[in-house]
TrEMBL record:
This is F-actin-capping protein subunit alpha. InterPro entries: CapZ_alpha, CapZ_alpha/beta, CapZ_alpha/beta_2, CapZ_alpha_1, F-actin_cap_asu_CS. GO terms for cellular component: actin cortical patch; F-actin capping protein complex. It comes from Malassezia restricta (strain ATCC 96810 / NBRC 103918 / CBS 7877) (Seborrheic dermatitis infection agent). Heterodimer of an alpha and a beta subunit.
Amino acid sequence: MSCSQDAVQACVNMLLQTPPGQENQVFNDIKGILAGTVSSDHVKDHARPVLLQYAHEQLLPVSIDLDGKSDYAIVCEAAKLDGKYYHPRLSCTFVYDPSQASADQVTPIPRPTSEAETLRAAVDEELSKYMHRHFHAGVCSTFLPSSHLSARQATSETASTPDADVQGQKESSVSSVHETETEQEEETNDETSQHCSTDQEFKSEVLPSPLTECASSKEAPEPVSIPTLTLHIVGNKYNLRNFWSGRWRSTYVFDLSTKAFTRADIRVHTHYFENGNVQMQTQYSDTMPAFQSTGSIAADVIRAIEAHEQHYQTKLFETTDLLREDAFKALRRTLPITREKVDWDKAVSYKIGAELTK
């Protein structure tokens, strides 16, 4: 029995609805559904791009080990750099394997030295402090745009190239001068009458120095535009033995030129599956008000984020209380005036039972 490609893809796409911390269970169930119709390797090939999309959407953390240092990096679009992922706190790149949910080929790269990188590091430090205060098992990271990082890397790599070229051209021009002078001295011993004409030709050839050509062709580096900061916070709580799990995700984009937030998104996903299957998914996107700087931009940014998330958490608590006190009670069957359950076996003895028998 064979299975069509569309049917396989439809099953694999269910991975995007996976509750927090249950990726392996859902993936194994999908392989069980398709067992006997397609091979396990075929399912993995279809699942790789879907698992990668799920990692980006859910901001999945992955463990990183570099030179004796360990940290958690976030797999997201903001971390993508030249086909790999960039972890700014350790200044390294890595390859993410969505099938194993692991990081491979961890490679250190030079840390940028721009003012934007200095501010990014300060914001990331304040964000880490905030995360440790409010998230017991959280991961956070602050990113500069990959284009800004690539431009800085290209500038640092090519900064020494013109000087090296100029030095090489200097040496080549000097050596050519000495060789020409030696040849001219030999020709002078044989043919003295041609010395003046040869000297004039030599001067006319040497005067256009390659240094001037290099200086005229050297272009000024293009200025790097003022970047934005992307801040990610993800907090995971898994307790599958007690049949529940949850995940908090926050994404903020801060414009360094206007000193204002251009994006502020909060997503919460919880799952409770004891004797049932109940999930809650919420999304909160709102414009954050402008704040007055107190001197430290990093502290001001995190202070604004803390106020924004506390406001949303208060609203979320109020909504869940309203759901429990009003909505769920409205679904329950109201007890009769006697506050006792109806004994349906004795229904005929009730007055309503006598009425029904007529």
